[in-house]
Amino acid sequence: MKSLGRHLIMELYDCDRQVLDDIGRIDEILLEAAAAARATVVSKVGHQFAPHGVSAIVAIGESHLAVHTWPEHGYCAADIFTCGDHTDNDAAFQVLRQAFRAGNCAALEVTRGLRDRPGEPVPVGRPYQSPSSAAT
Q1: Is 63 a catalytic residue?
Q2: Residue 63 in contact with residue 8, Cβ under 8 Å?
Q3: pTM higher than 0.70, yes or no?
Q4: What distance in Å separates the CA atoms of residue 128 and residue 117, rounded to the nearest whole number?
Q5: Beta bridge partners of 44
Q6: Is 83 a catalytic residue?
Q7: Catalytic option among 7, 64, 76, 83
Q8: pLDDT tens, position by position, for the chain (136 residues)?
Q9: Omega into 71 within 30° of 0, i.e. cis?
Q10: Catalytic residue among 15, 63, 64, 105
């Protein structure tokens, strides 16, 4: 089926707590992930919470990458949403997983804007198995 985009919803557990609370490093990570995905960065915004935690978003021409962190739990919620055949969500997935040093992660892949079957229900999503993770 043809679609308008792919959306990976990531759950990253047992992450490096210092990285999760470093807004400068998180900005770098998101830009690295966008570059790995071959996406076009449009803008970025981030917020450091007190006493800890970060929310950061990189808007890309193909949609967005976003993270929300809870350092006190070693947890990061991340989104990679892209459209276009030239993007590589798995490359961005790997950058985020490795940069946050996730001990455990899970992801759901949602196909957005299915175009072959108008009027039919859109599937909610399916567990994402990274092709790169299968080899490790």
Answers
A1: yes
A2: no
A3: yes
A4: 22
A5: 58
A6: yes
A7: 83
A8: 577 889 999 999 999 999 999 999 999 999 999 999 999 999 999 999 999 999 999 999 999 999 999 999 999 999 999 998 899 999 999 999 999 999 999 999 888 877 666 666 555 566 777 777 654 4
A9: no
A10: 63
